[in-house]
């Protein structure tokens, strides 16, 4: 079991802990302000120098025995940060995880706060320049994303009910299976 599950999972997978989806918890940690700042700057996260570090030639640097370990340690420290004053411009904090289809469908069907939306995949947009409306978000994050209309897909229904969101997850899963 991973460190996050041990710390936040109440004996199970951290992302299946219903308490983590409550509006009160998001308000307690001022998530809306943090997410707003993060999504406002999302496009620059992968190209910006972070703490003087430049990502050019990263593949080569990661293969270097000592340098690679140091880079990995610093980056993982940012990604898994739980500091009270995390830096959204640097994307500090646990910001996402790929889930098994059944777990994702359970979360959308039973735990997710509304509104539920489909938006452009920021990773695909930043990494490949492709605007692909495949990501499903909910709760405060959906409200933040809706303020940044460049992430809202054109010509696609983006506000989804639970059943539509579950169906969209299934369709995306099938598409990935057929076109890896």
Structure at a glance:
By secondary structure, this protein is mainly α. It has a domain at about 100-180.
Question: How confident is the prediction overall: mean pLDDT?
Answer: 77
The SSE order reads HHHHHHEHEHEH
Which assembly state applies to the chains in this document?
A: single chain
**With helices defined by DSSP (H or I, 4 residues minimum), what is the helix count?**
9
Strand line-up across the major sheet: 2-1-3
Number of strands: 3
The outline comes out as globular
Task: Provide the β-strand percentage band.
Answer: 5-15%
Task: Pick out its properties.
single chain; 180 residues; mainly alpha; 3-stranded antiparallel beta sheet; 9 helices
Q: Helices and strands in order, then pairings?
A:
Blueprint: H1 3-8, H2 23-28, H3 31-40, H4 58-63, H5 65-79, H6 101-111, E1 116-120, H7 122-128, E2 133-138, H8 140-147, E3 159-160, H9 162-178
Antiparallel strand pairs: 1-2, 1-3
Commentary on this structure:
The chain has about 180 residues and is mainly alpha-helical. The chain has a domain at about 100-180. About 50% of the residues lie in helices and about 5% in strands. The protein has 9 helices and 3 strands; from the N terminus they run ααααααβαβαβα. The chain has helices at about 5-10, 25-30, 30-40, 60-65, 65-80, 100-110, 120-130, 140-145, 160-180; strands spanning about 115-120, 135-140, 160. It has a 3-stranded antiparallel β-sheet with strand order 2-1-3. Helix 3 (about 30-40) packs parallel to helix 8 (about 140-145). The chain is globular, with a radius of gyration of 17 Å. The chain starts with a helix and ends with a helix. About 15% of the residues are buried. The model is unreliable at about 45-50 (pLDDT under 50).
